[in-house]
Amino acid sequence: MALPVSPPPDPDQDAALASRGAGDGLAEGTTNVPASTSLIAEDLASPTPQHSGAVARPAAASRRRLTMRKAAPYLFISPFFILFLVFGLFPLLFSIYVSFFQWDAATGLGGMEWVGIDNYAFVLMQDDWFHKSLYNTAWMGIAGGLPQHLVALPLAFFLHTAFGRWRNTFVGIYFLPFITSTVAISLVFTSLFSREFGVVNAMLGALLHLENIDWWQPQYSKTMISFVVWWRYVGFNTVLYLSAIQTIPRDLFEAAIMDGASRWQQFRHITLPMLKPMIYFAVTLTIIGSLQLFEEPFVLTAASAGDGRMSGSGGIDQAGKSAAMHVFTTGFGENDFGTASAVAWILFMIIALMTMLNNRLLGRDTEGR
Amino acid sequence: MSTVAHRRFSLDNLLAYAIVGAGSLIMLIPFYFMFIFATHTDREIMSVPPPLLPGDAFLMNLEILLTRIPHFWKNVGWSVYIALMTTALNLFFCSLAGYAFAMYEFRYKKQLFALVMGTMLLPAFVTMIPTVLVMSWLGWLNEPRALYIPAACTALGVFLMRQYIGSAIPRELVEAARMDGCSEFGIFWRIVLPLTGPALGTLGLITFIASWNNFLGPLIVLSDMEKFTIPLALRSLQGTGQTPWGAICAGAAIAVLPLLLIFSVASRRLIDGLTAGAVKS
Description:
The structure holds 2 protein chains of 2 kinds.
Chain A (H helix, E strand, L loop, with lengths): L10 H11 L4 H20 L6 H4 L3 H40 L2 E2 L10 E2 L3 H9 L1 H35 L4 H13 L2 H11 L6 H10 L9 H28 L4 H9 L4 H29 L3 H6 L1 H4 L17 H11 L3 H25 L8
Antiparallel strand pairs in A: 1-2
Chain B lengths: L10 H28 L3 H4 L12 H11 L3 H32 L5 H10 L5 H15 L6 H4 L6 H14 L2 H9 L4 H9 L4 H17 L2 H6 L8 H6 L9 H35 L2
């Protein structure tokens, strides 16, 4: 999900995060406890360099302490890396390996048959369902992703400029969809989008006098899924933009107001340019996330299949099937692990490519910041 | 908190209120109907216009839910168990690793931390297929540990704990404990960990919610309905003949209610924790 582009942050930011992010108990924690121990710290540490105290002790013991001290950090971080090796890196490498084999998993490891790059060739040239799922993914990525930012940017600006006491409440409301269970809420949406009795159709009928839409027809299902995706992530982006706006120096706005700048002019000439690094970053996250789209279409389109087992197919004409769903159905629906792994790696390459492209387009000026 | 612009009752502000208000309605409507529908019969739900106020059919919907998903309470139990195990393991391992990254100097520290962060970029679908194989070789298919062991130490958790420990815990404190002959692990366990309460709280809630909502993981490793987690159990209501809308919404409400409760008391903390990685970049 969220990750920093350049991990080591500066100390000021550190402090800012700690006081904001980690909560209320912090203030007591830092002031109380050190006070009681700082005397000892001074006594022992300040008069002499740290390890000269240790030299006074028996040499063997101090050497053991030093070894322990050297080894400790590696020991402490090892659980993460052990888990990553077993459940991250090994599966990763193994899936590269598998992607060069024809393999029905039911036959066991002995049933693997080397086919070279045939799986890749098949997926790229002949796998029509992959091409379609890729098209669907791009469609839903743009229709679900772009409006997230078009809405989140002004929303964050409004929340910043027009809201005081109620700001956090509204931020919470917008963020709420992000923390809810995709499956549960997608099931609720399934009923809201129902053709006959759905609330969505009722509202569209009342507002725009539209006929009842069958949202599971191929020409509509992607719109439905994109809406749910937008609904889920717009608040996340709003929070990102809001926190970036809050770091813009206040005097910039004050000077602009002095000069008689309207709110639109403030937004256009101060907020947007200052937000550019965050826009780049948030768009990167959306691109990566959109290309991995799985849960929303998986649950939403299952309703049309009429059979629980069919879920994953993407609904009528596979119109709502995402590329990640294609990995799933190829692997677990058809038991074709080789092709599924090839699909996964091609999709991974596409993600890497899109991220680089985005970096070229949007990230150019944000690099040296 | 004061803001830059004049917060007077202007047309500008009115427009901002209207837009923000309308948008927040869109955010809340699905939750509203989830709770309303959970208390209505299917016949009432499918009437036009739909019911807008609470009804009295919740227990009936629950009964339907329990007939359609015979192991529902067991499924809830598995969800709770897996979420609690994941959380407990993360609190320990992430703070331990975060402590090492925050307080020690060691070779390749930068590179190793970059690697930790880099793993967040790894898409789930790439490891989906081989993960099932690994689980089947380990004999963990259909076992809850297939879900909480791989998730026992997450990159986001290590990141959060490193940030907090690095900024909130004075190095002198650690040095002083070391001078007093406290063992390296003892420093962590007795000195550092008790001071990380707020960060542990945030990490705990985030981990619990992530595990509670996890769908792809259970989907590929669990096949025994008795061992399903809630999201999997709810999904099995789909497409089995006549859709039991009331029961679906009742089940969804049960799945979402704990999240709403957690969010209502700790929203600021959750929002900050979940966006920390992005905001700090």
